[in-house]
Amino acid sequence: MSLRYSKLGPGEGPNYDWENDHTFVKVSGQDTNGAYTLMEDNLKASFALGLHRHDSHAETFYFLEGEVDFYVDGDCHRCGPGTTMHVPPGVPHACRVAGAAPARMLMIFQPSGFDGFLSEMATMTEADFGDETKMATLNARYDIIPMGPIPPHPDDQN
Q: Please, are residues 91 and 73 in contact by the beta-carbon 8 Å criterion?
């Protein structure tokens, strides 16, 4: 008899160890029939993600450790442990690790799909990442609309 539930411990689940973060898929879109994906993201001190939006899915972030500067809809927030940030579809957002120290957060993508994006990226070569057409196609398939670099932080000095 197969289980009607799933359980993953620390460090378990499909994972993607990139240069700037190490992400674990804890509940996949396959597990939820596409309703949502739950991921644990271990952000390395160098993590930064440029301004973008998603037109058909929402993201919710729950910060566990460290601090992250989160830009959402023109506002900047420093998010630390216990903070929740919910970003509905269509709202521009970006983030970076604050204070050059690692951070960790849970992410919910609703509906699911981002786990498929990471899975496809894991099969790509450096040449693929440099191919603007290929990246634009991948981003479009997963509802990722790049909008530019991370906005300046109020604490940044020129």
A: yes
